[in-house]
TrEMBL record:
GO molecular function, one term: electron transfer activity
Glutaredoxin domain span: 14-69
Record InterPro entries: GlrX_actino, Glutaredoxin, Grx-like_ET, Thioredoxin-like_sf, Thioredoxin_CS
NCBIfam families per record: GlrX_actino
Identification of the protein by name: Mycoredoxin
PANTHER family: GLUTAREDOXIN, GLUTAREDOXIN-LIKE PROTEIN NRDH
Amino acid sequence: MTIPAPHTPDAGSVVMYSTTWCGYCQRLKKQLTSEGIGYTEVDIEQDASVIPFIEQVNDGNWVVPTVVFPDGSSATNPSLAQVKERIGA
């Protein structure tokens, strides 16, 4: 059974599943902010309802940042260039 992304972003933005202690998450958030790309952050330690989705798209692992794009697709630890390409920025 495929679990859909719990949150789908608006066009031109992303949803980022993260934790407070993740250095890769902090870096990506700073880059998105600097580029003016909107994002909604969901802390997977605070919202356990998203864990099944995170596990599904990461081969059973809790890997962050996991980013969801407006088309419902996702990427694990994408670069800023990859995010920009996927949202057409």
